[in-house]
Design goal:
This protein is of the alpha+beta class. The protein has three helices and three strands; from the N terminus they run αββααβ. The protein has a three-stranded mixed β-sheet, with helices on one face.
């Protein structure tokens, strides 16, 4: 799922080389997303619509594997 997040976000941003996803496992798998400062707005989208859509895809992918996942954006 880490690769899925990286793939989606790299298509959205102007600086795909600066996209980093860190995975922390626990009861819920937490993915921390770090992008260039200029690209944060593109990842979040208007009123958070883009990040909400990414989180929805992540939740669906995790559910198929009987897991829970969350996405956090690190500024």
């Amino acid at each position: 799922m880490k690769e899925l997040i990286e793939y989606i976000v790299k298509l959205l941003v102007d600086s795909p080389d600066e996209v980093q996803v860190t995975e922390y496992e626990g009861r819920t798998i937490v993915y921390e997303l770090s992008v260039a400062e200029a690209d944060i707005g593109k990842v979040i989208g208007r009123q958070g619509r883009t990040v909400h859509a990414i989180r929805t895809v992540l939740t669906a992918a995790a559910a198929r594997q009987n897991k829970r996942a969350a996405l956090e954006i690190i500024e």
